[in-house]
Amino acid sequence: MTEPIIKVHGLHKYFGPLHVIKGVDLEVMPREVVVIIGPSGAGKSTFLRCLNFLEEPSDGTVEIDGVEIRAREPGREHRRRIQEIRQKAGMVFQQFNLFPHMTALGNIIEAPITVKKMPEEKAIAKAEELLAWVGLSEKRDEYPSRLSGGQQQRVAIARALAMEPKIMLFDEPTSALDPELIGEVVEVMERLANEGMTMVVVTHEMHFARDVADRIIFMDEGVWVEMGPPDELLTNPKEERTKRFLAHIL
Question: What is the dihedral of CA 97, 103, 105, 106, to 10 degrees?
């Protein structure tokens, strides 16, 4: 019996008096693609950021690939586990967050060399392989300012993959892109899913959700309102809130 690669139990997040995530649980199996949808302010991005402790949860536990962390445990061991989880969970953000003073290649080799202590030649070979995989071999020596948004986001995906993560987290990866550039990023994400990468994706791209997700979660006001396979949740939602949301976007 395969164990879930992600286990979240009783996760809460407060920002001051604001209760943004209200005790959610989630298990994700290896190779599964889970898409989280919902209105702005529902807590989707905060949930994703709690998975790799970019936001420290207020309560609950997160376990990724056997590394378990309880919220707000002080000390060195807590910090060490956070580093371990971040190496296992690559993240791609809404804004591409590339280093502007580094080329596409430089952006990709930075973390493997500094964090994983990978020899430079090996890191470069790996980066060139990843640039080819995202269709940007010819852009290896370009700086981010010379790349389109879609190209920058594909470099950002390659950069996350350079750390050889077990799972990939995507936080609205296409929402900062012009409509004509969305397809090239979605295509790379679809290929990742087809190659068996475990993915948790916050997105408004319903085509991606419908075609690629194994499960869709509708989140609102910090809770899972409803979850199910795409054909079920998108065509025949049970909850009134889900129906109202989908009526606006489908």
Answer: -80
- The whole-model pTM stands at 0.95
Q: What is the DSSP letter of 173?
A: T
Cα dihedral: 21, 26, 28, 33 (round 10)? -50
- Residue 41's pLDDT band, with cuts at 50, 70 and 90, is very high
How big is the CA angle at 29 (ends 28 and 31), to the nearest 5 degrees?
A: 115
Q: How far is CA 210 from CA 214, 223, 228, 232, in A?
A: 9, 21, 11, 10
C-beta separation of 148 from 136 below 8 A: no
Task: Please enumerate in sequence order all residues whose Cβ is within 8 A of that of 50, keeping only pairs 6 or more positions apart, or say none.
Answer: 11, 13, 21, 56, 57, 62
pLDDT digit string, tens, across residues 202-218:
999 999 999 999 999 99
- DSSP secondary structure letter of residue 51: H
Radius of gyration for the alpha carbons in the chain, expressed in angstroms and rounded? 18
What does the mean pLDDT of the chain come to? 95
Residue 1: predicted pLDDT = 76
Q: Is 164 helix (H, G, I), strand (E, B) or coil?
A: coil
Residue 250, pLDDT > 80, answer: no
